[in-house]
């Protein structure tokens, strides 16, 4: 069963589980390892008051773990979550299930950076000074309109496999949708939220998850009222700079133009919105038709296009020609301010950093991630323990590169993951 849902597109982000093996005794019988010992589900509730610009609200915060069951009815994973409830028993109050992307990211970025009732104080592209970091009321939190449940998928945050189950069972597009969908259904049951308006909110790969979840949940009878897509990616052909795939180049051009305008690497005679629109028109009317000509594109036409690309992106015409008019994102972030010894961020291109040297195809690290990972890691760990009563001593996995590295993408026979149709 499929159903059309309202989709809100917003422009604006992704663990190693710590295992201890029990020693094997010399007796014939052995102790079960801590891998296979299943902990109990738990929840911790605290009451809070939050002052917004126009009102003060009282709410409950819940942190806890719910278990997912395998086909034998045994726990296969523990999902850690943070939930906020404003008015218990209000049947008209929506609930929004929120997650970041990666894959491999915990929900910390949307939780403490955009949507939660509390957030890390962070101004623009200025990295905050060293700890202590400020945690302040989020005056723009959608919590005023909806209860929220922040979900950490298996392998992120405190979420992990249980019993004999292994992490790789959860590291694919469909397995991830199944596990997050199972959690949502369990949460609806635990809190009797079935008749409340239900929304999903995801960021980056979280939008992929959200779109696929709409179809998955509706096939299970869970009707979704709406979806919030933040930095969406639904069709991965639009973002994979692979050989033979020219689709990303014209689609990324407006972002390149906006970045160049922000860093003052292009003319400032028109405003940002008009400049980006100019790049968008060039991308669709000139650049994309030129790319599909391949080697049939005449040299003089190629030179003319390279000159216009330079005007829009601040990247030298020679560099565009040397790249055969195809500059992937990793070259762009290195090249834009190379003459100043600077790189720009990929996740957020407003940020700048510097590498060991100015040579190379790409940056050595993403300065936009480096600027935020320390403050957010410290803040969320402190917040959980100081304000929400967490007693867990395990590491909270902010971003699991293991999950990201071992993710199994190739389930789609067409080659690229595409969940856009799941929203139909």
How would you describe this structure to a colleague?
- The chain has 424 residues and is an alpha/beta fold.
- It has 10 helices and 13 strands.
- The strands form 3 sheets. Strands 1, 2, 3, 4, 5, 8, 9, 10 and 11 form a 9-stranded mixed sheet that branches.
- The N and C termini lie close together (11 Å).
- The model is unreliable at 1-28 (pLDDT under 50).
List the helices and strands and how they pair.
Elements: E1 6-10, E2 42-51, E3 56-69, E4 75-85, E5 95-99, H1 108-115, E6 118-120, E7 135-137, E8 147-152, E9 160-161, H2 173-191, E10 198-203, H3 205-218, E11 226-230, H4 248-262, H5 272-291, H6 299-313, H7 317-322, H8 329-335, E12 343-344, E13 352-353, H9 367-386, H10 401-406
Parallel strand pairs: 1-11, 5-8, 5-10, 10-11
Antiparallel strand pairs: 2-3, 3-4, 4-8, 4-9, 6-7, 12-13
Helix pairs in contact: 1-9, 2-3, 4-5
């Amino acid at each position: 069963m499929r159903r059309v849902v309202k989709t809100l597109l917003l422009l604006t982000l992704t663990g190693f589980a710590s295992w201890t093996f029990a020693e094997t005794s010399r007796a014939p019988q052995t102790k079960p390892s801590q891998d296979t010992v299943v902990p109990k589900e738990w929840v911790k509730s605290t009451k809070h008051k939050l002052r917004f610009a126009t009102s003060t609200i009282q709410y409950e915060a819940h942190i806890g773990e719910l278990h997912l069951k395998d086909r034998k009815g045994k726990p296969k994973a523990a999902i850690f979550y943070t939930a906020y409830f404003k008015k218990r028993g209000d049947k008209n109050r929506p609930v929004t299930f929120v997650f970041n992307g990666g894959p491999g990211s915990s929900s910390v970025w949307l939780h403490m950076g955009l949507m939660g009732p509390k957030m890390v104080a962070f101004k623009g592209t200025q990295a905050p000074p060293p700890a202590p970091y400020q945690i302040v009321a989020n005056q723009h939190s959608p919590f005023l309109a909806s209860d929220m449940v922040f979900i950490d998928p298996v392998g992120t945050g405190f979420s992990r496999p249980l019993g004999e189950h292994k992490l790789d069972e959860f590291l694919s597009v469909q397995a991830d949708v199944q596990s997050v969908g199972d959690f949502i259904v369990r949460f609806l049951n635990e809190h009797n939220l079935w008749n409340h308006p239900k929304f999903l909110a995801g960021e980056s790969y979280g939008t992929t998850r959200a779109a696929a979840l709409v179809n998955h949940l509706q096939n299970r009878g869970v009707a979704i009222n709406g979806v919030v897509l933040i930095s969406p990616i639904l069709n991965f052909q639009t973002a994979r700079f692979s050989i033979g795939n020219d689709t990303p180049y014209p689609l990324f051009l407006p972002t390149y133009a906006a970045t160049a305008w922000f860093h003052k690497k292009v003319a400032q005679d028109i405003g940002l919105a008009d400049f980006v629109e100019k790049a968008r028109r060039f991308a669709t009317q000139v650049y994309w038709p030129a790319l599909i000509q391949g080697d049939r594109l005449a040299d003089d036409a190629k030179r003319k296009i390279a000159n216009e690309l330079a005007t829009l992106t601040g990247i030298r015409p020679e560099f565009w020609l040397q790249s055969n008019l195809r500059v992937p994102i990793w070259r762009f972030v290195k090249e834009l301010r190379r003459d100043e010894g600077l790189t720009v961020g990929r996740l957020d291109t407003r940020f700048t950093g510097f590498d060991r040297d100015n040579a190379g195809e790409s940056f050595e690290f993403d300065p936009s991630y480096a600027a935020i990972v320390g403050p957010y890691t410290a803040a969320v760990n402190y917040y959980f323990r100081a304000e929400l009563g967490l007693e867990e001593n395990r590491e909270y996995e902010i971003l699991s590169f293991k999950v990201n590295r071992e993710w199994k993408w190739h389930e789609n026979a067409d080659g690229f993951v595409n969940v856009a149709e799941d929203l139909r």
